User: Fold TetR/AcrR family transcriptional regulator from Streptomyces tricolor.
Amino acid sequence: MTAPAPRKAPRPRADALRNRERIVTAAREMFVEHGPDVPLDEIARRAGVGNATVYRNFPDRDALVREVVCSVMDRTVEAAELALAETGDAFAALERFVHAAADERISALCPMVSSTFDQNHPDLVASRESVERLVEEIMGRAKAAGQLRPDVGVGDLLIVVSQLSRPPAGTDCMRGDRFVHRHLQLFLDGLRAPARSVLPGEAVDIRELLDS
Assistant:
C-alpha cells in the first residue's frame, strides 16, 4: 500500500487576509500618531474588526509591532526596487526613493524596534538586509554616474531620512508633513557630486539607525 499524500495546509480565506491587512494598516497609523503603547482595542476599532480578530492574528503586542515594522520595511524594499527598475537619471531615481521612504515614517517606527522586541528576529533581519542591499545598489548606480558624492553610505542616507521625516518637537505629524519633503530636497542637493567639503568621521552603518 502506498502512503496517502500529505494534505496541503488550507489557504487563508480572502476576508481573513483583508482583516489582517486592515489591522496592520491601522496599527501603523496609530503607532505613528501615538507610539507603540496605543491600546489594541483602539487599533481594532480603527481597523473595523473585533478584539478577538486582532488576537487571532497577533497573539501579543510584540507580534503586531514586528509585523508593522516588517511591512514598512517591505514597502521600502518595493520603493527601492521601483527606483532600480528606472533606466533614466540615476540621481533622480535616488531622489524618488528617498521621498517614498520618508512617507513610510521610518522615524516613528525605529524606536519601537529597539524598545519592543528582538532586533535579531529573523523577519526583521531579512527585511533590513533587503533594504540595505537595494539602497546600496541605488546609491552605487548614482556614484558610478558621477552624480553622488562617494563618501556617504546607506546608513547616512537612512538616518537623515529618519530624522527629517520626524515631526519637529511640539508639533504633530500632520503639521510636520508640510516640511518633510522640502527639507529632504535640501539634503539631497547636498549629496550631489562634486562635494563641496569633506565629511568628518566615517559612513554610518544601517544598524546604527535601529540602535538610535
In short: The chain has a mean pLDDT of 82.
